[in-house]
């Protein structure tokens, strides 16, 4: 139906949609180019182009296509906002994804699409909380040592009362795990632990260390 002249506009739209669903992306690209040249259903074609770009992994380019579809046809605003939010999720830009899901809800709060958007928004908010780049863990515990000084160099510490002391063992761990775009991963950690004896603070042990680990997601 789309190979005759003049082309049937509805057939072009259906053909592009089907090609995208069947992952025949080259075929879809060809007919999108035809539709853009002849200005066939520009809003719908912009939306389908966004879906095509998503299939190709070009999420930020897809955002532009969905934005164009929304600007050309206000009736596509809610579904376009939802698709834009999904694009930002794939790009790990969770703050923008949250904003776009919220925008989708506000378009028509009583719709089924708004219900889905709320569910995704809740999920994104939880991920934002879990993926905070800095995490700090601090712990302090106490010990009681009955034989701290078995053979002290300072004879002032040889009395029996000096052998029984309380100790404090603090530990600190700082993790830095930023959310990076693309396949890259990075983690860094600083750790400190020690044992401090009272009342003789000259007697203590401590250790600290740090590590940095860049990585790439398998498959890239």
Automatic annotation (TrEMBL):
Cross-referenced Pfam families, in alphabetical order?
TPR_19
Entry protein name? Uncharacterized protein
């Amino acid at each position: 139906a789309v190979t005759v002249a003049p082309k049937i506009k509805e057939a072009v739209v259906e053909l592009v949609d089907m090609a995208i669903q069947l992952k025949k992306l080259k075929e879809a690209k060809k007919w999108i180019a035809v539709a853009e040249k002849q200005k066939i259903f520009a809003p719908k074609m912009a939306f389908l182009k966004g879906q095509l770009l998503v299939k190709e992994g070009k999420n930020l380019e897809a955002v532009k296509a969905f934005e164009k579809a929304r600007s050309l046809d206000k009736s596509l605003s809610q579904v376009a906002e939802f698709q834009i939010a999904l694009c930002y999720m794939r790009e790990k830009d969770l703050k923008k994804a949250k904003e776009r899901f919220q925008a989708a809800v506000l378009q028509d709060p009583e719709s089924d699409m708004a219900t889905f958007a709320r569910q995704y928004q809740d999920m994104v908010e939880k991920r934002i909380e879990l993926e905070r780049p800095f995490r700090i863990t601090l712990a302090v515990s106490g010990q009681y040592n009955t034989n701290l000084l078995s053979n002290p160099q300072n004879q002032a510490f040889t009395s029996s009362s000096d052998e029984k002391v309380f100790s404090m063992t603090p530990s600190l761990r700082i993790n830095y795990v930023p959310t990076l775009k693309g396949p890259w991963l990075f983690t860094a950690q600083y750790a400190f632990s020690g044992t401090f004896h009272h009342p003789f603070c000259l007697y203590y042990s401590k250790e600290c260390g740090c590590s940095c680990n860049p990585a790439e997601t398998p498959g890239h």
